[in-house]
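Board notes, transcribed. Complex of a protein with erythose-4-phosphate.
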Amino acid sequence: MKLFIDTANVKEIAEALSWGIVDGVTTNPSLVAKEGRSYREILEDICRLTTGPVSAEVIATDAAGMEREGRELAGIAENIVVKLPLTPDGLKVCARFAEEGIATNVTLCFSPAQALLAAKAGATYVSPFVGRLDDVGHDGMQVVRDIVEIYQNYEFPTQVLVASVRHVQHVVEAALLGADVATVPFKVLQQLYHHPLTDAGLARFLSDYHGAQKLQ
Ligand code: E4P
């Protein structure tokens, strides 16, 4: 499973890339708003740091506006993936971009039926938002399970990108279900490394080693 980092913060991206486990980046308008500078500038900076896929979302909601913005975003760098909302207009633009070979990430997916449409429209990635589903009392991971099964049934090439990840268990379950990608906030990426037995084990190894050294 690929791991993307879900942030528009260039420092976090640079740091996470240095760990050697991050394959790509996803951004969204809310994440960009936190950074206080232009979307284009941020995307240019990110694309200087990585050749992996970088999702950049359109702001327009009508097909003509999304198409225009999508083309502008795709022109920033070769690794830009145009993020389009799962709406009739968004999928219309997705199908057009698919014919032209422009990579797309269909976002704000909350049901298997929506994911089926994204695959029919030729999306490169579909992003089910598991955390937001859990937040309203639904089972986000069940939606991912259904999408993976539907895509396998028909050999759709659209990649399942698990988004709105809130904790380590979301990442583990995404991997168990065979999702193609999980996009993970910086804090959760850090949490993936930790286990109390690793810390305790390391502390014990070091104290045993240094204790023995003193006796020599
Ligand atoms: C995905 O591409 C989105 O940017 C993101 O995962 C949304 O997560 P949130 O529900 O934590 O805002």
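The mean pLDDT is 97. The pocket of erythose-4-phosphate is lined by residues 6, 26, 28, 107, 127, 129, 131-132, 163-164, 183 (CB under 6 Å).
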